[in-house]
Amino acid sequence: MDQMRLAFNGVVKSVRYSRFPLQPTENGESHLEVKLSEDGAEEFTDVEAEGSPSFRPAPQNYSRHSIAFLLLGTLLIFIVGYLVGYISHSKPKVESLNCSPVTQAPVAPVTQAPVAPVTQTPVAPVTQTPVAPVTQAPVAQPAEVEMDFKNISQLLARKMTREAFQKTLRDFDKPGRSAGNDEDMSLANSIFDEFKKLEMDPWTDIHYVQLPIPDSQNPNKVQFGSEDFSLTGYLAYSATGRVQGKLVYGNYGRKEDLDIVNKNKVELKDCVLLVRAGKISFAEQVANAEGRGASAVLIYPDEADYNYVADTVLYGHVHLGSGDPYTPGFPSFNHTQFPPTQSSGLPKIPAQTLTRSVAVKLLQKIGGPEPDETSGFKGGFKQVSYRLGGIENITLEVNNKLVNKEIHNVFGAIKGFDDPDRYIVLGAQRDAWGSGYARATVGTSVLVQLAKAFHEMVENDGFKPRRSLVFASWSAGEYGSVGATEWLEGYMASIDKKVFTYISLDGVVMGEGGFMASASPLLYSLLETTMKEVNSPVGAGTVYKMAGTTKWEANVMRPMTIDDPAYPFLAFSGIPSVSFHFIKPNSEVYTYYGTQLDTVDQLNYETNNQTNEITAIAAQFAGQMALHLVHDHLLSLDVNRYSKTLTKAVGGVYKHIRLLSQDLSPSWLNRARGSFQRAAMNLYNDIANTNLDDKEACRILNNRIMTVEHSLLSPYVSPVKVPFRHLLFGRGSHTLASIAETTDVDELHTQLALATWNLQGCANAMVGNIWDLDEEI
Question: Do both 504 and 628 map to the same domain?
Answer without folding.
Answer: yes
